[in-house]
Amino acid sequence: MTKAKQKQNDRKNKTKLTQDDLQKILALVNSTREMLSQMKDGWSVLTNTLGELEEASNRVHNAMNFRFQKDEDNNGSMYWADLVLPEDPKAWFYEPK
Q1: Could you give the number of structural domains in the chain?
Q2: Residue 91: helix, strand or coil by DSSP?
Q3: Does residue 29 share a domain with residue 54?
Q4: Structure confidence by residue, pLDDT tens digits, 10-35
Q5: Residue 36: φ, ψ to 5°
Q6: Disulfide: which of 48, 49, 65, 67 matches 91 by Cβ 3.0-4.6 Å?
């Protein structure tokens, strides 16, 4: 695949979910449910639950090609802001200089 074709594909969201994609989403949902259950029980969360939730979230983020938003100067990403779909004009893509 050429770099131009890969770049074009990076800017599209997946429309079909594979079994692996569904497993990643399911893991995120289950981790979220476990965390909420722990918080309801004692308003505390185990550290390993937070790690599992972060790992599941990252897997879904990568599998779905969700993107960080561009910063105001279009020089980098706002990793702390909500993620956006790759088609969003605010989506940030790393461009080597």
Answers
A1: 2
A2: strand
A3: yes
A4: 677 656 888 888 788 888 877 887 88
A5: -65, -40
A6: 67
